Amino acid sequence: MSVLAAYVEEALASLWxxxxxxxxxLLGTIxxxxxxxxxxxxxxxxxxxxxxxxxxxxxxxWVAYVDRSSDNPLASTLYYRDVxxxxxxxxxxxxxxxxxxxxxxxxxxxxxxxxxxQVSGIDxxxxxxxxxxxxxxxxxxxxxxANVAIVSKTARKTLFPHENPLGHGISLGNTRLRxxxxxxxxxxxxxxxxxDAIYVPYTTMHRIAPGPIDGIFFYASPxxxxxxxxxxxxxxxxxxxxxxxxxxxxxxxxxxxxFSRVLGGITVGITLIGGIALCVAGIGIMNIMLVSVxxxxxxxxxxxxxxxxxxxxxLQFLIEATILSAIGGAIGTIFGVAIVLALQGSIVxxxxxxxxxxxxxxxxxxxxxxxxxxxxxxxxxxxxxKLDPVVALRS
Length: 395
Known about the structure:
- This protein has helices spanning 2-17, 19-54, 81-88, 139-143, 153-159, 188-194, 202-208, 226-241, 252-295, 297-305, 310-351, 358-385, 389-394; strands at 62-66, 94-105, 108-110, 113-115, 118-122, 129-134, 148-152, 169-172, 175-185, 197-201, 215-220, 247-251.
- By secondary structure, it is of the alpha+beta class.
- It has two domains: 2-55 and 257-394, no CATH class; 68-245, no CATH class.
């Protein structure tokens, strides 16, 4: 242990003697590690926050809607009565279902101005929606087809810019609805996606617009596989509307899983780009260490002539390269963490809660730091250890 401590002390002394050169070499490592931590930390936080926001409604279930690319999509038109018939003909693979209204523009007149917000019929208010005022649409509202509605934050600004909308009435067709709540989505990114929206119970929406529905939301029975649910749903809908009816059937949980994997792939790609910057820093360390070997050739010859082995010489230079990389990595880590902390608030404003996986980010940074020192310092160290002492003394 004392020999290793002596090597470390000697390495630090050598770096200090050439401190300007060492500082310039550190610069590449600092920039590489800082950029890697910043990019990886922010991308991971954004990906996790967006994934959590999209899946915060719990089990998203399945959805079936008309395939508009079919030859005759009108023959596949779905109706409110198809919901119960789908469950009945699904051979037990579907536990429950409800009519889906994906968002229809309805004229809403407020204070003499007509607006066209997107009106959707829902089962109950999704857990991913944050209620800013009032209450959610509950099971009683749905079962009783209550004349109630909740409006998005942006719809409130559009329809009621100067007053509290709770308790106010709005007319959709011939139906008068009472506003019971104002909602928002977690994060401004999803909030902007919601836009000017009004949600009403799907049973109420059926009374307002009794014609075709936009789709059917349903939940698979416990134990039913994805293939069974898809096949049973397609067969049930074809039995209702004929063999030429075509539908798109989506497992929304699987879609979220695909989205998560895409985000993961993007994160890996971004991290590899940061790794390129670290490789450039490693080449800088290798260059500096090769210069150091050339400058200290006579010193190496003297040490070998008095009994130092090739392994001792190589270890000394390898420790020097590792220390140089570690110092740069430590400083780069400080800068990288500072950048993540400074910009994390912007990510939170876009996607809601966005936790940074610090253990993962810092462990990757530490791995790259040590890897650079050992990987790019190995060649100069081996070269120094292989020098012939006679040739080295004559240089």
